[in-house]
């Protein structure tokens, strides 16, 4: 195994083999335990219609249902948040995911107006805002909306970052990367898929092409095109298998380049950025 590969696997805590239901329970227990250590009663999660939020939302729904039963406190709830930028082409998938999860409540916030207002104000200052940059602003508007819901409903925000995204830093810093709890962290993409399969989730939700869908010039751009490496290759790498050198180098390039996302803001005591 490559030296950096072993270091990454250890840092992200990825297993080469999982028992899907055991990992599901581990995440559900984490969600239950965390809420009980806080004054909070609600889990808040943006549900896009993609694989990751389909899984994380199911974990949240099961966690709060068990908490209600075990404690008798009926105020525990899971709130799914629809966050379209105007119309969303795969809206039906998002609604299907929420129904399958059996969310206690669904909230809808269209992020288009807030995004456009932010971009327009920035442009007043003689700045060019690229489509790519605007995509990250959309992800941050989704973060603002979810924390708005959390603030109103005594909630904690769930993030869907998992090992295959953490290794590539494929998320918006302080956008979808910002959350209170990350139940998928440690799992790679195929492990998340295996859990959904074990849970008998609708196949179309876990077999669909992963996309951040943030760019207007390249709608529904597959993550694998953006990254230049496939999830199968990333998962193989994370599970300690040998992948071809080009793929391994691409993954490692992303890992090293996005180190700043896996640490807090630099201060006078931090040293990670000097290495
Ligand atoms: N050393 C460093 N090199 C580069 N940037 C550094 C930095 N240290 C701090 N920074 C800060 O980080 C910022 C760049 O990071 P960031 O804003 O995240 O931007 P960036 O990493 O350039 O873009 C985010 C990527 O994640 C993808 N994404 C986003 C959201 C969801 C998903 C998904 O899978 O669904 C994927 C998105 O398509 C895009 O490819 C800079 O503006 C700077 O403030
Ligand atoms: N249109 C949206 N509506 C609600 N939440 C969204 C939307 N787009 C992104 N999100 C939130 O941002 C997270 C990151 O997006 P990401 O694309 O990585 O995950 P996903 O869409 O759930 O799964 P996949 O990666 O397979 O597409 C989502 O899991 C979800 O919580
Ligand atoms: Mg997606």
From TrEMBL:
Record pathway: Cofactor biosynthesis; NAD(+) biosynthesis; NAD(+) from deamido-NAD(+) (ammonia route): step 1/1
Coiled-coil regions listed in the entry: none
Top class in the EC scheme: ligase
InterPro entries the record matches: NAD/GMP_synthase (IPR022310), NAD_synthase (IPR003694), NH(3)-dep_NAD(+)_synth (IPR022926), Rossmann-like_a/b/a_fold (IPR014729)
Catalytic function, reaction form: deamido-NAD(+) + NH4(+) + ATP = AMP + diphosphate + NAD(+) + H(+)
CC annotations in GO: cytoplasm
GO biological process, one term: NAD+ biosynthetic process
Keywords attached to this entry: ATP-binding, Ligase, Magnesium, Metal-binding, NAD, Nucleotide-binding
Residues binding Mg(2+): 52, 165
Residues noted as binding deamido-NAD(+) in the record, renumbered to the chain: 140, 173, 180, 260-261
EC number(s) from the headed UniProt entry: 6.3.1.5
Top-level lineage group: Bacteria
Molecular function via GO: ATP binding; glutaminase activity; metal ion binding; NAD+ synthase (glutamine-hydrolyzing) activity; NAD+ synthase activity
Residues annotated as domain NAD/GMP synthase: 25-262
Binding site for ATP: 46-53, 160, 189, 211
Annotated CDD domains: NAD_synthase
Cited HAMAP family: NadE_ammonia_dep
Known partners and oligomeric status: Homodimer.
Family annotation (PANTHER family): NH 3 /GLUTAMINE-DEPENDENT NAD + SYNTHETASE, NH(3)-DEPENDENT NAD(+) SYNTHETASE
Protein name per its UniProtKB record: NH(3)-dependent NAD(+) synthetase
Organism: Weissella kandleri
